[in-house]
Amino acid sequence: xxxxxxxxxxxxxxxxxxxxxxxxxxxxxxxxxxxxxxxxxxxxxxxxxxxxxxxxxxxxxxxxxxxxxxxxxxxxxxxxxxxxxxxxxxxxxxxxxxxxxxxxxxxxxxxxxxxxxxxxxxxxxxxxxxxxxxxxxxxxxxxxxxxxxxxxxxxxxxxxxxxxxxxxxxxxxxxxxxxxxxxxxxxxxxxxxxxxxxxxxxxxxxxxxxxxxxxxxxxxxxxxxxxxxxxxxxxxxxxxxxxxxxxxxxxxxxxxxxxxxxxxxxxxxxxxxxxxxxxxxxxxxxxxxxxxxxxxxxxxxxxxxxxxxxxxxxxxxxxxxxxxxxxxxxxxxxxxxxxxxxxxxxxxxxxxxxxxxxxxxxxxxxxxxxxxxxxxxxxxxxxxxxxxxxxxxxxxxxxxxxxxxxxxxxxxxxxxxxxxxxxxxxxxxxxxxxxxxxxxxxxxxxxxxxxxxxxxxxxxxxxxxxxxxxxxxxxxxxxxxxxxxxxxxxxxxxxxxxxxxxxxxxxxxxxxxxxxxxxxxxxxxxxxxxxxxxxxxxxxxxxxxxxxxxxxxxxxxxxxxxxxxxxxxxxxxxx
Length: 575
Fold this sequence. Notes:
Elements: E1 2-7, E2 14-19, E3 22-28, H1 29-33, H2 43-52, E4 62-65, H3 73-83, H4 87-101, H5 103-110, H6 112-115, E5 121-124, H7 127-136, E6 143-153, E7 156-164, E8 167-175, H8 180-190, H9 199-205, H10 214-217, E9 221-223, E10 229-231, H11 238-241, E11 245-248, E12 251-254, H12 260-266, H13 278-306, E13 310-314, H14 321-324, H15 327-330, E14 335-337, H16 347-359, H17 379-388, E15 394-395, H18 399-411, E16 416-419, E17 433-437, H19 444-453, E18 462-466, H20 470-473, E19 485-488, E20 506-512, H21 518-531, E21 535-540, H22 551-560, E22 565-568, E23 571-574
Parallel strand pairs: 1-4, 4-5, 6-13, 13-14, 16-22, 18-20
Antiparallel strand pairs: 1-2, 2-3, 6-7, 7-8, 9-10, 11-12, 15-23, 16-17, 17-21, 18-21, 19-20, 22-23
Helix pairs in contact: 7-16, 8-13, 18-21
C-alpha cells in the first residue's frame, strides 16, 4: 500500500510517502522553495517524495490530506451567521475549503500527464486526527493518552484521545473560537514578533523575565472544570473578524488578533523595531507560565480520564519545548512522546498513518526514533557542486580521520557547517543540517550571531549530548532525540557549557543515539575524548532562511557567512 500524505493550503505545507506503514520520505515545501513556513499546495514536496522512490502518481494507491472541509461544518455555518462574519472572510474560507475538497483539480493542474493515469482515491482526514495519528502511531507505546493542541484546524483547536493498538478514540475537543495557540500567538504579536511562526521567540525571551503578570494574563485565558480552558473574547477579535490568514506567493501571514481591551490591560503593544524592555520580558515569562498551567491542567485531566501512564503530544503548541520538559513533573504521566514534526507539517505523515491504521486497521509496525526523511545528496552531487563553484576541498576516505580534524577545529574556536545524509523533517536541525561549535566557550553565542545567524541575542543555542551522558549533565534523564524538551542543567555543570546554558539554567537538548545517528554520535564522542565534555553546540544550518537542503545551498550559506569549515559527507572545505 502506497500512500501519499499532504499538508496543504496552510503554513508549513509538506508531503510524505508511506509504503506498507513505513515512512519512506517526507519534506516541507519550504526546504525546496526557500521561503519559511511556505503555504499552499506542496508541488515540490510531492515531486521529491515520488522521485526519491522512483514512483509516479499512477503508482500511488491513496492520497490523504490533513484537512476535512466537512468536519464541524454545522458549527462553522452557525458561527458565521451568529457573528456576521464579513463577506470577504466567508469568501476566503469557502475558497480555501473548495481547494481542499477538489484536490483532483490541483493534481490535474500541476501533474497533468501523470495524474491522467492515477486510479487511486483521495481521502480527507480531519486536521487534529492527523495530529493525533502523527504522534501515537509511531510512538513506542501499545496504549496511550493522545493530545493535539494548536491554533485552529478544521474549526477545532484541541483534540484528546485514547489509543490502544492500532486504533484511537476521540475523547474531548475544543472548538473555535477558543484556542491556546491563538492565545500565545496574540501575545507574540503584541510583543512585537509579527511573523507567522514567531512564537518560539516568546518562549526564548521568557527566561529573561519574572512572571509578575500572571494574574492579568489569567484574565485572558481561564481553566474550566471539565479539564479544558476558555478564552475571554474581550481580548480577541477573531470571533467577529475570523482568523484572517493569507499566503501571498506562499508567505503565510496572520492579521493581528488582539483588541483594544488587550492594550487597555497590558499597555501599548511593542513594534518589532522598539527595544525589548524588562516589562516585555516579564510579560513573556507570565504568558509562558500561564500557558504551562493550562497545558498541565489539560494533560492531568486526560491522564485521569484514560488512566494511562503514557502521553503522545502533537500540534503547534506541542512545539513548546519548555512546557514539554515539565509535563512529567507536573502531571501523573510517566512517559511522553513527541514526534520530530509536531507542528502542521507533521500532519502529512499523520493523515497517511491515520488512513493506514485507523481506517484500514493495519497493525502498527513502526516506532519512529529518527526524523531523517528528507533530501539525500550523493557523493557525486557534492563533488560536482564543489567543482562547479571552483572550491578547493579534501576528500577523506577514512571518516575517523575526518572527525579527528573537525573536532580539533571545534576546539580551536572554529564554527562548522555539518551536512550529512538525509535532511531532517521538522523544524529542528538534528545533526544532519547543523552548524556546530564548542559549548565550552563563553563567546560562542556572540561568534555565531556575528558570523552567521544574525538573530536576536536572547535566543538560546541547543546542546547535542551523547544519550548515555544525559544523566551526568541534566537533572532529568530521558530520551530526547528530536530536541523537543527543555530540561534543567545541573548547577555544577553550567559553567562547563556556558554556550548552551540558557539564562535560567536550562538547555533544549538533543540526546544522540549511536544506533540511529552513528556519525554525529562519533563526532560528539571524539570531542568528549579530547575535552571531557560529551556535548556540542548545535544550531540549524541556515542564515535567516529555511534550513539548507542541497549541497549548493549549504555551500552558498558557507560562502556568504564567516563560517570556518564546511563538511559535506566526506568532503572537507576550510577557509
